Amino acid sequence: GDVDGGQLRKDIPEINSEMGRKLFEGDIILPLERNALRNSSYRWKFPIPYILADSLDLNAKGVILQAFEMFRLKSCVDFKPYEGEQTYLKFEKLDGCWSHVGDLQSGQTVSIGERCDYKAIVEHELLHALGFYHEQSRTDRDDYVQIWWDEIIEGFAYAFDKHNDSFLDDLNTPYDYESVLHYGPYSFNINSSVPSITTKIPEFNEIIGQRLDFSRIDLLRLNRMYNCTSSLTFLDQCSFEYINICGMVQSGQDGASWDHTLGKPGDEDHTLVGSCADGGYFMHLDTKTGHAGQSALLESRILYPRRKEKCLQFFYRLNGSPQDKLVIWVKKDDGTGNVRRMEKLHTITADGEHHWKLASIPFGVQTKFRYGFQGIRGDPAKSAGGIAIDDTSLTETNCPTNVWHIRNFTSLFNSTSKGDYIMSPVFYSSEGYAFALQLYPHGRSSSTYMNYMGITFHLCSSPNDGLLEWPAGHRQVVLSVLDQDPDVTHRMSLSLSFTTDPNQLVYGRNDTLQWDRPSITGNFSSFCNCYMGPGVGWNTFLTHRELHWKKFLKNDSLFIFADF
């Protein structure tokens, strides 16, 4: 089955034009006074009250909440359930994807209609609601893009109007080809193969209209407009590029120490991967010297939480002796104001591998705290390396529940053809459902599109099945490809989702429910020694261009997060 019907995901202009909606710039309902971006009375006060109308699809509700979390992580914009306030956002499933601009002070609708339930589309419409117009409507847009008026559907030329300085404020930022608010090249176009917009710098022709996430300049403008000095759920991160190591401290040394280490060929850092001769640092504990049992503790500065949930993510490499260990601790307020009550969160044992791996460690703490990395020497006589950490981040968000680390991706990519796939390990949801993913580096054989990766989600049989609810309906599948930018707030990770329909039938089988037990719906697979249900996913999951544009591929590793 295909979430996208086997077709390319349609963008906002195409969705709205098919609906017959003729809105300002394609998806905007203007306030009576048009200069909402310059008039501070149209600015929202946070948190913004919201209503999720019953008309919304279940998947759309989940995607809207995902978008809220992106705003909280990357800005000071916040949302709260409606409690009778005068001003609010009401999300409804109406005709297309559209929004008003700015706070109208009277309550207003955001339409997340059919095919609009993607994280980046919701972000796009929310940026309109917050007071922003499309990038290509800037006063200076003709310096950067060419509008091909003869290629635009009759009656839609107004959607490409540009605005003067009295109407728009660029907040002293440059034109942004990467903006999530930029039209794509084929917006409102007559001929599906002839663009209506091209870029003056040709390399950006395939970038405009990206629907991954906010760009850096999107966030710069948002945070400038709303005077955000910090984001809500971001706490700490470090790429260890500077000698102050982000305020982290060595403590509790027991004959060993963490060293601020410059990468070298064959021993590169994770941040820059050897791309800069005088950059690319990480923290390293040498386990070839000293004695077994010696340890060193690297601790964060004291942090002050706002939420309970936390997710500590970092890249690590343990290529010393098999007895080496990396232990993650949190040190909490003991009730007297002193941060000294220790709690062990996780232990990673050495595997001797030389590539960087990703750790995601959830924990909950509501008092001031530090987190720490304790490296422990195992057997120096058997060590050929040590323990390394890089690109740490701490956010007050939920950790991904399942992480698929695909190594040596370039070799896999070059040795596969259309229809070939690689299989993930079997993962388990928090409820106990087993599932697996199939990734098609060159797309599924049924796809008519070139230069796309495809992916499918399959339920798998497990010993838990007798205890679980079947069919497994009304549950959201969220698949994300990690942008490995060291700055969490600048990551433009792809995230797509669908919600399981308990009444959906297996394609071509009128008597079998798609989300019933895999032993009923599927076939036995020797790969997992289990029954695998039929797959549902996307033919056009990620373009090959996007794969190499952002930092999805780093150290030849691809990371896919899977939540169910």
From TrEMBL:
UniProt domain Peptidase M12A: residue ranges: 35-229
Major enzyme class: hydrolase
Signal peptide: none
Cofactor: Zn(2+)
Span of domain MATH: 399-564
Bilayer topology annotation: Single-pass type I membrane protein
Active site (record annotation): 125
Keywords from the named record: Disulfide bond, EGF-like domain, Glycoprotein, Hydrolase, Membrane, Metal-binding, Metalloprotease, Protease, Signal, Transmembrane, Transmembrane helix, Zinc, Zymogen
Residue ranges of every copy of the MAM domain listed in the record: 236-401
GO MF annotations, alphabetized: metalloendopeptidase activity; zinc ion binding
Binding locations of Zn(2+): 124, 128, 134
Cofactor note (record): Binds 1 zinc ion per subunit.
Cellular component, GO annotation: membrane
Gene Ontology biological-process annotations: proteolysis
EC number of the protein: 3.4.24.-
Record-given protein name: Metalloendopeptidase
